[in-house]
Amino acid sequence: MSDTAANSNSPVSSSPANPPAPTTHPPAIWFFFWGEFAERSSYYGMRAILFMYMTSALHLADTKAAPIYAAFKMGAYLLPLLGGLIADRWIGRYWTIVGFSVPYVLGHFILGFSDPVILGNTIQGMSAERVNDVAQFLLFVSLALLAGGSGVIKPNISSLLGQTYDQKRPGQERLRSSAFLWFYLAINIGALISQLALPYVRDSYIVANVDPAIVEQAKKQGEEISKLAPPVVVGHAYQLAFAFPTVLMAISLGIFAAGKRTYADEKLARQNLTAEEKQQGLSMLLFILGIYGLFAVYFAFDQFLLKKIATDWKRYAQAGAIGTILAAVVALIAYSVLAAGKRTFAAEKHAGHHLTPQQQRSSLRTLGYLLGIFALVVFFWFGYEHNDTLWIAFTRDYANLKIGKATIAPDHLQFLNALWVIILVPTFNAVFKYLDPDVKMFTPMRKILVGFMLTAAAIGIMAVAGYLVQGQTTTISVEGKLTEICPESAKVSWAWTAMAYVILTFGEVLLYGTMLDLSYAAAPKSMKGYVTACFLLTNTLANFLNILWTPFYGGSLPDPVEKRGPLPPGLFFAITAGVTVAAGLLFIVVGKQFQRSQAEEMASRRPVIA
């Protein structure tokens, strides 16, 4: 917000006849809070049970489900660029959120009906293999809709919240900061509740397709159905569990839409765009849609066409598809960097800040080091993003999940992340402010470095647990089929995974929050939004790398040996931790260069500003 706008609405400059500026939150805060609470509950609730759904209900191998999950997350983190572009250039934030909430709800709905058990009972006369193919196709459709909905909506909710406070409560920065704190709490409280509840809902209601005559007999005799006859099909109630996110997202849409009159009055920038800016916007839109389309084609090709192609040709086809996608991603980033750099210097010149060639080089050098830090942060997310896929797979196969007489689900421990985020963010803010008010001890660079190392330590815990169970498996016969299991006596405690989640969250809070603030503060004024978007893209690139890396995981006991990767769990997690440590060590070098370049840039600009 500009100083002029703040001063014109200041109660000091107003006449006695004018009422004082309000000091309470505008009514819009409640629509934002409850809408975001419901939306994030639906999103994180769906994600909490998604991996187990793909592996247990759809019978995908872990090495297949993890790359699909990574591609979904990549899309969800790439599409905020598209969401910001659509909102800024064409239809505004409100209508972007409302419009893309519809496919979001539809994606939840389709996901609930992609269960092969439901499809088999609904579509009669279809072979089991055909039912499974249809179920996997519906999975891809639903994930595409969910990534599109959540990704496009993600940047516009917070932007509209800030814009609303700039208009409704101009100049009240503390009030706006308070609103964002409530907004942040809504996200994490929603995630915490859904991550606790949905695995319980799924496991508490079992779907059993049993002969009705047996059900009646059981009622008369007061016996359990399983004692009279085994059910034809028994499975977790995924359809019921996925119904909750569907309803929550529909509620979120209703709450948000109801608050339209309380939001900011949006003025689109499309009328003031030059022909060059319009062309740049259209080019970026086509790039993003092209990348998204390439992923859709690749997974459809991989799932339905490559089954009939020889293994060697399949490898070549996959390598070609992945290479094409990687080239498109690199081209998008390179194009964006060049276009943004050109706009930056044009904006500086227009504002009267005529930069000398030396100052331009200094500015570009600082920006280059910042982007170098971003490249290293990719490897923070690279290891972090296994927590909702392969950590769950390891816990399912190798962890003793009993707590007293109760048994927890392997994906239930994810709630620890949201819980500790809620605890740590205000705690760290208070402690750092009290112990180091001048930011001399807990500098951003030190926080980021510690974040790298704590994340590596969390992954290292999983590696140690993997080595403890290595070679402890045995083969048994289940219904005439040989199955490999880890005996209960050889399993590690669930506390290993729980401890890893807690330490991982410490690293996340230190690194993510600090990097978000640093990327905004260090960027040129005319590039702050763009540089922040580049930081968010680090997660996109990390998930792309995980599409390639997760198939190397070889610890999945329910899967046939030929569908497992070559690396045992201990070695897989150890290599991942080593990559994170290496990125942290490189960060020390790049971080120092960034600080030195930033200091030189500030020194070179000081005479110009004076």
Describe the structure.
This protein is mainly α and 610 residues long. The protein has two domains: 25-262, MFS general substrate transporter like domains (Growth Hormone, Chain: A, Up-down Bundle); 355-610, MFS general substrate transporter like domains (Growth Hormone, Chain: A, Up-down Bundle). Helices cover 73% and strands 4% of the residues. The chain has 19 helices and eight strands. α6 (128-168) packs antiparallel against α7. The radius of gyration is 26 Å and the shape is globular. The model is unreliable at 1-16 and 224-234 (pLDDT under 50).
Features:
610 residues, two-stranded parallel sheet, Growth Hormone, Chain: A, two-stranded antiparallel sheet, disordered N terminus, globular
How are the elements arranged and paired?
Elements: H1 3-8, H2 28-57, H3 62-78, H4 80-112, H5 116-122, H6 128-168, H7 173-204, E1 206-209, H8 212-221, H9 225-228, E2 233-236, H10 238-258, H11 275-305, H12 311-350, H13 357-384, H14 390-398, E3 399-400, E4 402-403, E5 406-407, H15 415-435, H16 444-469, E6 474-478, E7 481-485, E8 492-493, H17 494-522, H18 528-549, H19 569-609
Parallel strand pairs: 3-8
Antiparallel strand pairs: 1-2, 4-5, 6-7
Helix pairs in contact: 2-3, 2-6, 2-7, 2-10, 3-6, 3-11, 3-18, 4-6, 4-10, 4-11, 6-7, 6-11, 7-10, 7-15, 11-12, 12-18, 13-16, 13-17, 13-18, 13-19, 15-17, 16-17, 16-19, 17-18
